[in-house]
UniProtKB/TrEMBL annotation:
GO function terms (MF aspect): ATP binding; protein kinase activity
The species this protein was found in: Punica granatum
Statement: the UniProt record of this protein carries the keyword Chaperone: no
Protein name, entry field: Protein kinase domain-containing protein
Subcellular location: Membrane
Main subcellular localisation: membrane
Keyword 4Fe-4S annotated: no
Transmembrane regions: 236-260
Annotated spans, Disordered: 205-230
Amino acid sequence: DLTSDRAALLALRAAVGGRTLLWNVNQQSPCSWAGVQCESNRVTALRLPGVALSGDLPNGILGNLTELRTLSLRFNMLTGQIPSDLALCTNMRNLYLQGNKFSGQIPEVLFSLPDLVRLNLASNNFSGEIPLSLNNLTRLRTLFLEDNQLTGSIPADLNFPKLEQFNVSNNQLNGSIPDSLQAFTTTSFLGTSLCGKPLKSCPEDINLPPAEPGTGDQSNGNNGTENKKKKKLSGAAVAGIVIGSVLGFLLIVALVILLCRRTRNKKTSRSMDIATIKQPETELWAEKPAPEAENGGVSNGYSVAAAAAAAMTGSGKGGGAAEANAKKLVFFGNSARVFDLEDLLRASAEVLGKGTFGTAYKAVLEVGTVVAVKRLKDVNVSAKEFKEKIEAVGAMDHDSLVPLRAYYYSIDEKLLVYDYMPMGSLSALLHGNKGAGRTPLNWQIRSAVALGAARGVEYIHSRGPMVSHGNIKSSNILLTQSYEVRVSDFGLAHLVGPSTTPNRVAGYRAPEVTDPRKVSQKADVYSFGVLLLELLTGKAPTHALLNEEGVDLPRWVQSIVREEWNSEVFDLELQRDPSVEEDMVKLLQLGIDCAAQYPNNRPSMSEVRIQIEEIIHTSGQKGQFLQAPDQISNADDFSSR
Ligand SMILES: Nc1ncnc2c1ncn2[C@@H]1O[C@H](COP(=O)(O)OP(=O)(O)OP(=O)(O)O)[C@@H](O)[C@H]1O
């Protein structure tokens, strides 16, 4: 009954809740407690997302909530195994445990919850194999297992008749994808070694059972001899392939030695370098996946030259030195022409990350200048239109923008050259390193970032009513050496085709924007609002896991604010400083206003900038704000992360 439900909730709070569950225990009924929902005097739903629950869930608590249909403990810090007494909650339909640190095998207790419809175990430390007994869950519509340590293959007979949502990305899974799951798109299987539809087809021999004499062979004599024949044949084929490869390899080595000798004898010409040496790198480059944008960029030693050389030699018109020289970097305004295309081609480069519009590289020129080069893909406007639009981008000049210095345009290759921002992106800063040694981002830093970004976007909007950024998100908010904010990537949305993957920007995109090219200033304001909420909550809006039945960051924030959990919504690093909570709430409200459903209800970027200035101004007037002990006085401190 309700009394035992109440006792169970209090036991849960005592075990994992700490100070974060501000339930009023003077109230006899728990039904009005935040996150608790009742029907017919029993607790039927418990939703405690992102409230810093931590520790192991003990056995003997949740099992008392026998009428529970929804349990959401997502985005907490719960550890250990899922308690086995959950089996007593036989009415359970929705179980959201994503974003915790649960470990061990996928718990057997789940298989005894036959009514489960939504099961989300993503972003935990679950290990072991995906058990076939999951098939017991015949009503399952959602199964999210991504970002765990699951191993082995997916059982071939795994089948859920009603499954609508499925994801096993980023696990150490291998083998072939079962037929019943082949209708899902590649995004359900990213970061695994799985094969077969919708991914690349499996190497054929993987599916061939080992031909063991005395088993299948015996049942049918004919088959047996056929198998043996096949075996012999393939043996001969293998020998042929090996000999062929060795000969081929020797031939190539001989050719390379010959070529090297020749080039050494000749006076070396740079264009030859590009054509002969860089070309093979191009292929290497093409196959190597770029590291994730957030991980700070790992040096791969690939050369930008490889990319650009591909463009020049790949155009089919002979490529040669004359043509390469004819193509020039076009510089903007009074940007000093301290380097030319050849310098860029010779620069050593590393991949910074792959984005919507292409891949970004850090290139270190021989003279020491460091630039960021963006290699655009899917540009589908005419050369004239490209030049016009890019000239407009290059003409933008403001302290809060990353300057576009130059561009290169050919049929096959479009390069944009920006100033390199050594401190990386806000995205990396917020979500990069959560471990020890990270210096917390306090209110002072976060509000300054908000203001800098607002100024940059406001400037872009001031260039004309039709001018917008089009792709505001935390990976496009970059930081200089002295941690000043620079907005990047503006104006590119109009250059690319509709095929451009919408997923990456999905969490930021305004509801009315159905085609990523049809951006507007009001849509920018929406994205900016999401950015503010990201800054304050510390939660990445693109995180697939906010996606509890399609909840995005603005709606998640609103659901929490509605339940009067204001202080729980903020990033833990911000909750340290109660003296500015009021201002944090104001900025949160501004974020929510910006992310209004209807474009006309959103403020203009100038209004947004003014409001942020006011909020920061009042914060600054509060005595202890600048002197609080854990405030960061020296910006360099947080380079230790
Ligand atoms: N000028 C720059 N200086 C330093 N890092 C940069 C620069 N431009 C981009 N980056 C970083 O390189 C990575 C890839 O950037 P890119 O803009 O190509 O993709 P993105 O921001 O992830 O997505 P999108 O293409 O949608 O903007 C990101 O981590 C970004 O922060």
